[in-house]
Amino acid sequence: MKAIQIFANQYQKEMGWEISEESYAKSRDSLLNNYMLLTTEVAEVAEELRKAFNLTASYVEHGKDEEQAFELAKKQIKEDIGKELSDCLAYMLKFYNYFEIDVEASFYAKMAEVKNRRNKDIVSPTK
Ligand SMILES: [Mg+2]
């Protein structure tokens, strides 16, 4: 288990925010609640993107070049979208910890699986 996962595990315990393991009913409620909170945080990432697109449109209306306007908008949302992505990561780490899954091992294995699956989908033009 890597540092960020260990930190999240300790942090969640310290705050009393870990997913309940008391009973099936409590675990089910806790898992569903945390899943709901994760999806809320994912929506907050979308809000930041919307903010960036609205800012871009506003800058363009005021005469800025579209690419420059978007670069400016990205800089303006960077800190807040980073916070929302961190919120998402915190909930995801909770699930990894509850199921005792090593984040890095799982992530690299899944990325390899996706890469292999994608390569299989590519049909050679000579076939
Ligand atoms: Mg948030």
Give an account of the 3D structure.
The protein has 127 residues and is an all-alpha fold. The chain has a single domain (3-100), classed as Helix Hairpins, CATH 1.10.287. 81% of the residues lie in helices and 0% in strands. The chain has four helices and no strands. It has helices spanning 3-15, 24-61, 66-98, 103-121. α1 crosses α3 and α2 (24-61) runs antiparallel to α3 (66-98). The chain is extended and about 60 Å long. The structure holds magnesium ion. Magnesium ion is lined by residues 41, 44, 84, 87.
What Rg do the Cα atoms give? 20 Å
Helical content band: over 70%
- If helices are DSSP runs of H or I spanning 4 or more residues, what is the number of helices? 4
Poorly predicted regions are: none
Count of folded domains: 1
Percent in strands: under 5%
- Secondary-structure element series: HHHH
- The shape is extended
The CATH C-level class name: Mainly Alpha
Major sheet: none
- Can you tell me the CATH architecture? Orthogonal Bundle
Number of strands: 0
Protein name: MazG nucleotide pyrophosphohydrolase domain-containing protein
